[in-house]
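Please decode residue identities from the backbone states below.
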């Protein structure tokens, strides 16, 4: 007659335990880069970024946006923060638009 033994599925398998210990030892023995070399690499990357876009052209356009104040017949939805017309208000007390309420 065969009796089954309960298996603890939460316990780590032996090969996983061994690989974790091996990787920890490998991390401890690995040589970490010094701070100066990391800063130097970051500076080089920044210099490459400042050259321009891949085509070699500089984009020096200024974005001009005209800001229009909220009108008397508009409200700002408290859920999506969009300015909408008063006809789209779901309930006056909540301040949500029809789309957010739906």
């Amino acid at each position: 007659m065969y009796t089954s033994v309960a298996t603890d599925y939460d316990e780590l398998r032996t090969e996983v335990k061994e690989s974790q210990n091996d990787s920890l030892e490998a991390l401890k023995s690995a040589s970490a880069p010094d701070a100066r070399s990391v800063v130097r690499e970051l500076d080089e990357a920044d210099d490459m970024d400042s050259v321009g876009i891949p085509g070699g052209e500089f984009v020096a356009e200024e974005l001009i946006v005209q800001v229009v104040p909220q009108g008397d017949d508009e409200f700002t939805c408290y859920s999506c923060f969009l300015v909408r017309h008063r006809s789209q208000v779901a309930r006056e007390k909540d301040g949500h638009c029809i789309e957010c309420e739906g």
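Observation: The mean pLDDT is 77.
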